[in-house]
Input
Amino acid sequence: MSVSRTERLLNLLIALLNTRYGLRRSELREKVYHDASGNDVAFGRMFERDKNDLRAMGFEVETLTDAGWSEDDPATTRYRIGKESNTLPDVQLGPEEWTVLLLASQLWERAAMGSAAQSALRKIQASGRLADVELPAGVQPRIKPAGQAFDDIVTAMHARHPVSFTYLAGSTGKEEERMVEPWGLGSRFGQWYLMGYDRTRSAPRHFRLSRLTSAVTTLAKDHYSPPADFSIRAELDRLPELPLRTAVVDVRKGRLLALRSRAGSAATQDPHEGPADGFDRLVLEYRDPEMLAEELASYGPDSLAVDPDDLAAAVRRRLRAAAAFSAAPIPAYTFVDVHARAPRKRTSEDQLKRMLQLVPFLVHNQGLHIQDVAAHFGITREELEADLQILICSGLPEGYPDDLLDIQWEDDHVFISQDLDLKRPVRFTVEEACALLTGLETLNGLPDLPGGGALESVTLKLLAAAGEEGLQAASIAGPQVAPADAQTHTTVRQAIEARSQLRLTYLSPQRDAVTVRDVDPLRLYSLDNTWYFEAWCHQVSGLRNFRLDRVQEVHPNGVPAVGHATPTGVPAKLFTANDDDTTVIVQLTRQGRGLADDYYAERIAELPDGGLVAEIRFGNTAWLPMFVAQHGGTARILAPADLADAASDWLAASLAAYGG
Output
């Protein structure tokens, strides 16, 4: 990271903020850049880049000219930054509003929106102290990561760049190249949809992200303008739900309890012939053939899609892709510990953005210990001191000592006495406004939100503070997070609050069994509207996670919960590592690389094609062939060899059932 560039940007910002008349390029070159090279072209390029960087951070660099003069004349053109138009208005929140805002900021788990939400939250905290609030007992709603395609499309959409990808068309079943101007992203019917203008079809279209069959490519040299009145929520409301259809599936006797629990009566008329020996014929209702095909592919030779033909074809396509990937040559790779990976290289813009949050935070939180300040910004003490060293050397061009930022931390407590009008945080970026406002919108319908009107009031306050950037929040719509089974959710939440034990009857699809166990519930959390609760299971003497929609019966058993420490990590983990887990090496394509995060990979190796090899610990490995089949060519087992062979055998047997 270039410290000189960070200093230059900061001093340029301070100079432009503290001039009413404006500064000419020649004055800035002499007083801020200290450039005497005489190379006007090189300086002009540098100055234009710096102006663009400041604008990207939320500052409007105004260009002023005297009457009768052109902006093309650098000798008469002046530059300045208006103070009020670039700062975030004060946002005063009560305890209940803070509670709602914290829940909204934590929704985005690992997606790129997560860091934007945390940055926006720090800006609000920078203008005042965080109220002493307590989140609802053990409740952590989260938005399920939508994969690399989601992050790539959001970045392109905010920068107004088109994207291209290959897409599996639902109407034809064929893969097609598409070039799209992304207008909005939203979740409906349990799926993420991209809405935009399809240049290939010369018409607006919607695309389901799970049907993308390639990585997303951003066309960075091209730009577009979305419709001024576009609202992704309005578009999703007009999106018709797929019609209800009926599938005929043969299931091995005594297996697949989860599938059987959803099945209707057996088919009265066979579309082809009766089921093979050892199989039962079931009738299933479904809407999306791809979602059902993913599930049936995971069941391998224990199930056979008989009718309709497009469902069977979708299962075969997944199984063939998985088999082809499993048979491909093993790439060369070198593991790196996930926690030891070098962080993304920090840029001057990253550091300057942080320092512009740091100054107002220090103004409103005088005397904090330096370690507490570093922890608040998620950096080390050394990184914080590097920021402070730059800040105390920055100020007005050719100013006196009083014209420099004045910060002291010799006794490990940080004080600031001269802020040079940087005491208010910069206005929200588009990404920050979208992250918080979409998060607040997503909380609608969540049970037991604090304060009946807190969600509405904090949303209105943030909309007012975000200004035009807040209007672009209409381009993203999150999923519903309300639990499908409100009664089970309430029973578990009340047990967490009362610290009482629960008797649980639970269906485990991986083990294909129903068990009864006593558990001490610790916290509730969600991925979209799929809710889980983390509990101490007395049957296995360890932490386990249970899906609410797989709970067949639950009630307090009259025994107080044992005094386990309440987990504090955010987010909660779907899988808890144990000493006797099996270490498995998995190769993932670029489309499937998000699985490394989903399953908490301990080491990874990046591959040239954008995929990776991940080392993951699994407590139960018997279901891994199902895992490979389910993901249809985006994941395969490399080691141990017996697990890789088991997955290959599973796929071969599955394909044999479909005729090879």
Remarks:
- The chain has a mean pLDDT of 85.
- The two ends are 56 Å apart (CA to CA).
